[in-house]
Each structure stands twice: as C-alpha cells, then as structure tokens.
Inverse folding.
C-alpha cells in the first residue's frame, strides 16, 4: 500500500523554478516529485514539468543533493 501523500498546490512549478535556479534537486524537491508521481489527478502541465525535471537529472543538467 502506498503512503498517503498530498501535493501542495503550485508545488511543481516552484520545484521547477528553484531546481533550475540552483542547478540541483534537494531532498524536499524529491518528496514533492514523489507526491506528484503518486497523484492520479495531476494536470498535464505539471506532468510535463515533472518529466522535464527527470530528463534534466538523467542528462546531468541537474544534480541530486542530500
């Protein structure tokens, strides 16, 4: 069973902006992305932002920090 997590409204654009500015994804950002992944009602714009963030990590444009 998945843990109950709730995404804060506006969290994905905020994560996108801060990760782009800092060049890294923090632990807090990762929890937000996990909540987004578990959200069945995520709108298309937020889903695309999540995809862009994950691609940036895979391509090495964003670092993952503790």
């Amino acid at each position: 069973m998945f843990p109950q997590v709730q995404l804060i409204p506006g969290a994905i654009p905020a994560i996108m902006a801060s990760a782009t500015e800092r060049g890294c994804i923090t632990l807090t950002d990762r929890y937000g992305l996990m909540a987004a992944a578990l959200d069945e009602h995520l709108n298309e714009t937020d889903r695309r932002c999540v995809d862009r963030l994950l691609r940036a990590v895979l391509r090495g444009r964003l670092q993952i920090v503790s």
